[in-house]
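Exercise: predict the structure of this protein bound to oxa(dethia)-CoA.
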Amino acid sequence: MSKITAAITAVGAYLPDFRLTNKVLETMVDTSDEWITTRTGIQERRILKDKDKGTSYLAIKAAEDLIAKQNLDPKEIDLVLLGTATPDMPVASTAVYVASKIGATNAFAYDLQAACSNFLYGMSTAARYIESGRYKKVLLIGADKMSSILDYTDRTTCIIFGDGAGAVLFEPNTEGFGLIDEYLRSDGTGREYLKIEAGGSLMPPSEETVKNKKHFVFQDGKSVFKFAVSNMADVAAKIMERNDLTHDDVQWLVPHQANKRIIDATARRMELEEAKVMMNIERYGNTTSATLPLLLHDYEKQLKKGDNLVFAAFGGGFTWGAIYLKWAYNS
Ligand code: UT7
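Solution:
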């Protein structure tokens, strides 16, 4: 029997309509369109304005987009994995709710949490289930309502993040397409630099935590930048090297969208020309778990069967890594 690999066979996405532009942010905090554009590459981000809608809303929409495009019977889905840093609630898995709402009544489901590496690590998890031969259809969703955890008076974080969701379907392949190799890393000494301090078991919610804004994202941007820039480039170079890939062999870099300067540095290290680098940070900002599937969605029509894709991400924790995947279909 030929080896089973886990191939991506469909993509879906959802972005809320409201666009928060740099110009509007100029009226909210002490910043400028020029600073944001040159330091990050971001021009606008999407925000889910409805107060009564959480991350599940975004995830359901992205999954429904995929299901409709693929004409998929949701009852055939075996597993729903949801990568998110902003679950609907701390307890009661958001993935389970999403699976029920999309009609995946024969699936089991659970959430994954590795900050901005959620989707990358999720690809690894999804692939293991498929490679086992036991599961045939794994739906991996990356979704975040980042606006729910941002302090819109803090210019160092509120300009960066946006809301959105993307979904991919993994299925078995016996022709050598799909996930080929992965190099995943983490380092717990990094958690001081990018975190939400309160709301967990270490610092439960209290009047004081609310008053001191401990439920919002804190980021020491300069330190995170330093780690991200070297580590993302390192893992991307490493995965190329150990799979004997030169820059000519790689058709696409699919990089986490945190900062255009980090993406450029990774591409330079891989010696990849700009046309091979997927980028949509200017339109969506950093959507945390959704950056990678949103790129696949935006570039899907340009992808060809057999293309070599290198995914790379870096996030809070710290968590980071790279994945080498062979694209399995023409749109
Ligand atoms: O996705 C998860 C992983 N996250 C990342 O990979 C993010 C990594 N970090 C970054 O992308 C960048 O560090 C930031 C975009 C967050 C910040 O850019 P930077 O070039 O590293 O700026 P900085 O923090 O070194 O700050 C430079 C200056 C400071 O002023 P002084 O001290 O030089 O006077 C900041 O106070 O820019 C100031 N500044 C701002 N100015 C205008 C910080 N934020 C802003 C702002 N508008 N929004």
